[in-house]
Amino acid sequence: MQIDQKTLQRLLTMNDEKLAAMIDRIARESGISPEALGARPDDIRSIRAALGSATEEDLKRLNELYNVYRQTRKTR
After folding, report:
1. Domain total for the chain?
2. Can you tell me the distance from the alpha carbon of 46 to that of 39, in angstroms, rounded to the nearest whole number?
3. In principle, which of 14, 29, 47, 54 could form an S-S bond with 19, CB 3.0–4.6 Å?
4. pLDDT in tens, 50-66
């Protein structure tokens, strides 16, 4: 999974319920508990603000971290 600005903008056009469900789904499919990270779907306004302010550099770093995470999971 790679997140770019186009994907991010598509996520931000979703209504609150759909966005929260998508975030939950992505996290769980990645083996991450949103609650463990402190990301509460009921705080969708803050999540939207964070996603909306993400820069290209932020997305690059996020994708790098996700790739490292996936590689780590494969070796377990």
Report:
1. 1
2. 9
3. 14
4. 889 999 999 999 888 88
